[in-house]
Amino acid sequence: MPLLIYYRKDGAIVRHHMAPKEWDEDTLKDRIDQYNTDHPGCQAEALEVEPGSLTEYLLEKIQAEARRSDEAIEEALDALDTARDCVRSLQK
DSSP label at 37? Predict the structure, then answer.
């Protein structure tokens, strides 16, 4: 399963995501070549993620952390709504 990695001109990774499942190897290569042509100085490449590999483990950790962050944001928004309701009830 290929992981697409996008690099800035200075070599820092700026984005990553799994390639769509419907892309075959030729499509993947064409898309990477097109990105690299359209973004001079920046680069995209594909990394094959093997099941059970360290890369797969780290990707799962990143995704789990992102889910936790999303949950924390939702909880904070709920707390703000509750606080607004309290303030409105005091204003009446």
Answer: H
pTM of the model: 0.66
Place of tokens 């290569």: 29
Residue partners of 22: CB distance under 8 A and separation at least 6: none
Encode pLDDT of 32-71 as tens digits. Answer: 999 999 999 999 999 999 999 999 999 999 889 888 888 8
* Polymer length in residues for the chain: 92
Torsion, Cα 48 50 51 53, to 10 degrees, reads -120
Domains in the chain: boundaries: 1-48, 51-92
Picking from 4, 36, 44, the residue whose alpha carbon sits closest to that of residue 21 is 4
- Residue 3 CB burial class (10 angstroms; 0-12, 13-18, ≥19): middle
